[in-house]
Amino acid sequence: MARAEGRTPFLRTVRTLVWRDLVSEYRSREVVIGGIVFALLTLVIFNFAIDLRLETVEEVAPGILWIGFAFAGMLAFGRSFAAERERGTLDGLLLAPIDRSAIYLARTVTNSVLMAVVELVSLPVFVALYNVRAAWLDLLLTTALGTIGFTGAGTLVAAIAANTRAREVLLPLLLLPLTVPVLIASVKATAMALGARPPEPLPWLQLLLGFDVIVVATSFLVFEYILDE
Amino acid sequence: MTSDAAVEVRGLRVALGDQPVLRGVDFAVAKGKRLALVGPNGAGKSTLLRVVAGLIRPGAGEVLLEGRSLTSDPWHARRAIGLVAHHSMLHPDLTARENLRVFAGLYGLDGVAERVEAGLRQVGLERRADDRAATLSRGMLQRLALARALLHNPSILLLDEAETGLDTRAHKWLLAALGERGGRTVVFASHDLGFVREVADEVAFLRSGRVAGRVDTAGLSLDDLGERYADALAARPAERAGQAVGLAG
């Protein structure tokens, strides 16, 4: 059989890798189950620990929600490249004639989908448990934008941390300061989707969108160097 | 160095941390030939194969694959090379068939279904095609890894102790597969001199990150090969340097 030439088409690579990772996660459920348990436990524990009054719940509860999402996300990121290195499957990717940035994009898509599953399970529980009235469209838009920014940065940091021995420590140490803007903007926009005053979510949503574009584009460009080092 | 070399390595130096692993390796393998890398643990065999595969960047030196630099033309290198290493590079939660399909996708191959089925048949895993890789034995995984490495029809095959863990039948199959004269160049690392004697056209002895000697296996008995290996390892550095220079081309 003749050999193909040059590099593999970008979209075919992304599609193949996303399919591989989602099928694998569907069978092992090692990230999603852990993430859901973590997020729900956070919601339940804070619900008991903090005395939320009716007039402050919209301001405080979003912070709790995003603590749950952030830590659930870090569980997923931690497995992203560490598992690939441990199993040696990363070598298989590095040997293939594919753009390294396709690996980043595929992994960001997969992590976003996994976080979205965790969020879709957690959000109704959150609304019921904290007794808040949600503008669902605004809430879902905020969650989607916040998730893209957080996973965009998290996937990049996970690749950096996977090269080190102290990756479990390094991942949150690098990721949390880097994602402070996206977490603050997500918390603020979520609060407004829950009815907090003043109802001006647009600047926060713009900040989220800007962060998403910058972090994904930058990571996309530098990923090749990170993976090759 | 020969101009028709499939693999040519010049002055290769690699250090992992502060530890030098390859200390100036030169060799060339002609197209269609099979070169065995033999040496004790820590001699640098696996590192050398990983450098040739483009998985480790050397500190100094150059790798040419079919006359094209690995550094300046990595896309050609990735198409030209198939590697079977210690790790199978297969995803444990995917079936044997799915694993091959993923690699066919990553190599942008046409006729995926036909290639995958042909690959499974080639390594005798048709009956286990729908079993997850995690449930396959070490030998079966090794066979599947070989099918994975051959899926894109590489012109250069790199094997790092590929015979390890294979049962007698699979071992025979590997011998037969490597024995086929299909024009494919094979560079493989092994500790098994019997296997080396049966498969290789030439043997390069590695010691402490240097080529300590090189022999043609034509007309060489297993005992002779053992003696040459012992001589190469026992030779003093000055003698080895002389041998390496003399035999490198």
What topology emerges from the helices and strands here?
The complex is a heterodimer of chains A (229) and B (249).
Chain A: H1 10-28, H2 32-49, H3 57-87, H4 89-95, H5 100-130, H6 136-162, H7 167-178, H8 180-193, H9 202-228
Helix pairs in contact in A: 1-5, 2-3, 2-5, 3-5, 3-6, 3-7, 3-8, 5-6, 5-9, 6-7, 6-8, 6-9, 8-9
Chain B: E1 5-16, E2 19-30, E3 34-38, H1 45-52, E4 60-65, E5 68-69, H2 74-80, E6 81-84, H3 96-106, H4 112-122, H5 138-150, E7 156-160, H6 168-179, E8 185-189, H7 193-199, E9 202-207, E10 210-216, H8 222-234, H9 237-247
Parallel strand pairs in B: 3-8, 3-9, 6-7, 7-8
Antiparallel strand pairs in B: 1-2, 1-4, 4-5, 9-10
Helix pairs in contact in B: 3-4
Describe this protein's structure:
The complex is a heterodimer of chains A (229) and B (249). Chain A has helices spanning 10-28, 32-49, 57-87, 89-95, 100-130, 136-162, 167-178, 180-193, 202-228. Chain A is mainly alpha-helical and 229 residues long. Chain A has one domain. In chain A, helix 6 runs parallel beside helix 9 (202-228). Chain B is an alpha/beta fold and 249 residues long. Chain B has one domain: 3-Layer(aba) Sandwich (Rossmann fold). Chain B has helices spanning 45-52, 74-80, 96-106, 112-122, 138-150, 168-179, 193-199, 222-234, 237-247; strands at residues 5-16, 19-30, 34-38, 60-65, 68-69, 81-84, 156-160, 185-189, 202-207, 210-216. In chain B, a hairpin with a 2-residue loop joins strand 9 and strand 10 (210-216). Chain B is globular and about 50 Å long. Classes of the chains: A mainly alpha (229), B alpha/beta (249). At the A-B interface, helix 1 and helix 4 of A face helix 2 and helix 3 of B.
